[in-house]
């Protein structure tokens, strides 16, 4: 009876998350190579002629904000791949007449770092019938299913937890019963990893579901755990990690708000980068600048630095964020790998693990296959349930 309960729990957990899991696995598989697909679809936005002397961050910021007084630059890249444009995040200023933010219709601008030319813009996640918005739409669909408010994060987080439990439970159910272990554990378990030849369609479907679940289990655990982090970091993931190691609140949430979030910084991005670099530990002084983010609500610049080749080479994932006051330049906070606790380093590992970038191109390829395997699991799980439901219905009629 106990085994029947666990089988039923595995079955109905899977059915409850099936549609969501299909959507998340399909979109996740596409996003593994999303940047390359996006660049192929939109070379007019994302490709530029390489420049030997790109403009400075402050000069680019000035040009962008002068081109449209309704906006302010909120995040400026400080470097990138040769031949790639800069994706600059912008946000609306407050309209003095209405007291409300201007309606821009976009939150990203694409700029040639060598000339300062604005190549175009787009609203991340908006549904528009053009190539420019395809990957951003898929990205938001994957992250929060385009649901309003926090509902999307709660739903995707619940799906990740359900997927983790269902995967572990499904693998446990494939183990031979303890009474059969005397006959040889591996001999009894080995058939669960393969597909029986010459079997009926129903048996083949079941074998495919079971073996795909076993072979993809390590990837499912990694993807589900990191999925919980992305959706329920503060609610679930970090508190659980905090049982084993200290995890401090992220500076973006920990820093207090200032009285006037619309105040202008006393100095520009270029100076902010210099002041932030002076705060780096000696072991990270060689890190190139990554991006500059002005957080008006907290009155700080966030200047990020990354190790050379970060997220491009295997096991390259270290970065540092320095938060300095936008009026005085004083250090307000820091966050990064160098001074992080073990728990915080585990948190930092989640994005490279989820995307496969922790192992470079090999890891990304593995995550693509894992996403497709998850689609197979969902489809075959539904087929197994329908076949057995049909069999039970026929037995009742007889």
Account of the 3D structure:
It is a single chain. β7 (319-325) and β8 form a beta hairpin. α1 packs antiparallel against α5. The protein is of the alpha+beta class and 398 residues long. Strands 4-3-2-1-5-6-7-8 form an eight-stranded antiparallel sheet. The chain has helices at residues 2-32, 34-41, 43-46, 57-67, 134-144, 151-173, 185-189, 201-215, 217-241, 251-254, 269-277, 342-348, 350-355, 360-397; strands at 71-77, 86-92, 108-111, 118-122, 289-295, 300-306, 319-325, 331-336. It is elongated, with a radius of gyration of 25 Å.
The chain-level mean pLDDT equals: 93
Number of DSSP E strands: 8
Following the backbone from N to C, one meets helices and strands in this order, namely HHHHEEEEHHHHHHHEEEEHHH
Silhouette: elongated
Structural class: alpha+beta
**Percent strand:** 5-15%
List keywords for this structure.
398 residues, alpha+beta, 8-stranded antiparallel sheet, elongated
Short recap of the structure:
The protein is an alpha+beta fold.
Q: Could you outline the blueprint of secondary structure elements for this entry?
A:
Blueprint: H1 2-32, H2 34-41, H3 43-46, H4 57-67, E1 71-77, E2 86-92, E3 108-111, E4 118-122, H5 134-144, H6 151-173, H7 185-189, H8 201-215, H9 217-241, H10 251-254, H11 269-277, E5 289-295, E6 300-306, E7 319-325, E8 331-336, H12 342-348, H13 350-355, H14 360-397
Antiparallel strand pairs: 1-2, 1-5, 2-3, 3-4, 5-6, 6-7, 7-8
Helix pairs in contact: 1-5, 1-6, 1-14, 6-9, 8-14
